[in-house]
Amino acid sequence: ESIELSRLLQTTVASFEKAYQRKVELRCTQEIHLTTDEQKLKQLLYIFMDNARKYSEEAIEVNVERKENHVAIRVMDRGIGMSQKDLEKVFDRFYQVDESRTEGYGLGLSLAKELAHALRADLQLSSEKGSGTTATILLPRSEDSHLQGV
Ligand code: ATP
After folding, report:
1. What value of ipTM does the predicted structure carry?
2. Which of 63, 69, 73, 104 is the most exposed place for a label (fewest CB within 10 A)?
3. How many angstroms separate the CA atoms of 97 and 3, rounded?
């Protein structure tokens, strides 16, 4: 279905902030129309925001960058981060970094992988131990949204 991304992000962020009493700084100024599965995209965003919430204490940041063929949505936190070694494994089912075995089951990111596959999106995770993590969702822009331009 055709959606407008900035509105979807606003409503998703607002419900997340209300549910968890955590500040999310959303930076998305322009309207972006694209064809995607709204429900799956919301679930995907929630997984990354939920991790940012669990593994950091400061405000979470969500920003959007529009490229010619895709849209990059980034969820960033300034939390505990993780090592490169762990980064390679966190998408596996049930994998949790030793220090963070307090909450959850290690399933969020494996579900994220499946959702991304269904959305034909790519995921990138970058992290540095002690300084934070950035998750990027690269969503393809369809032909007709491309023609809509703006
Ligand atoms: P849940 O089943 O509730 O999703 P989870 O958060 O442990 O639990 P994943 O979302 O799959 O599961 O994440 C796997 C592991 O990756 C986490 O246990 C944590 O160690 C690490 N991780 C994920 N996101 C972050 C982040 N933003 N900062 C630091 N570590 C993270």
Report:
1. 0.97
2. 69
3. 36
